[in-house]
TrEMBL record:
UniProt name for this protein: DNA-binding protein
Keyword Oxidoreductase (UniProt): no
Keyword Glycoprotein found: no
SUPFAM superfamilies for the chain: lambda repressor-like DNA-binding domains (SSF47413)
Region (Disordered): 99-123
Species, as recorded: Streptomyces siamensis
């Protein structure tokens, strides 16, 4: 890869971070891991060709052009959270992925009931992802880290919050959230 290609890939990943909260390669790899998929199955569920998924993951392509695919990504993120917190079994997840594959998109808000536990309360992972999404919609991860570094000497707890939710892994943010709920 020459310098121009490397620069274009870095720019695409930064755009993805701004649009989707993180580079799509990291997001898709996490979905593959959390849901026990391979790339071909993930591409099928999302309604993308395998080469398109590969281009998005590698940063050769920055944006998901189809809003229905973006919504399917969000639905899969919610499902992965439910599998992680035990509210959805692996068998149920497989059925839900088939439903997600068939979904045509629509209002993101119409699917909020799927992001709640059986008691009707949002799952911890869902709450954490909402916080992460909000922070990442306001600033890129690098800017959030810079802000955290600025705050660290006088407000270490706020700096930690920014680092964990603004640029950290969801699993670390869930642990942080749970440790501060008592």
């Amino acid at each position: 890869m020459d310098a121009a290609q490397q620069e274009a890939t870095a720019r695409a990943r930064e755009l993805q971070r701004n649009w989707y909260g993180e580079p799509l390669g990291a997001l898709f790899r996490r979905l593959i891991e959390d849901l026990g998929l391979n790339q071909a199955r993930l591409a099928g569920v999302l309604g993308l060709s395998a080469p398109m998924l590969s281009q998005l993951m590698s940063g050769q392509r920055a944006k998901i052009g189809n809003p229905a695919v973006v919504q399917r990504v969000q639905l899969l993120q919610d499902l992965a959270g439910q599998v992680a917190d035990g509210s959805v079994s692996a068998a149920e997840a497989t059925e839900r992925m088939d439903e997600i594959k068939k979904s045509q998109g629509g209002s993101v808000l119409s699917n909020t009931t799927q992001s709640t536990s059986s008691s009707g309360a949002p799952t911890v992972k869902r709450v954490v992802r909402e916080i992460q999404s909000l922070l990442r919609s306001v600033a890129a991860a690098g800017d959030i880290i810079d802000a955290a570094d600025t705050l660290a000497p006088t407000h270490p707890e706020l700096a930690e919050f920014l680092r964990v939710y603004g640029a950290g892994r969801t699993s670390d943010a869930v642990a942080h959230y749970q440790s501060h709920q008592s």
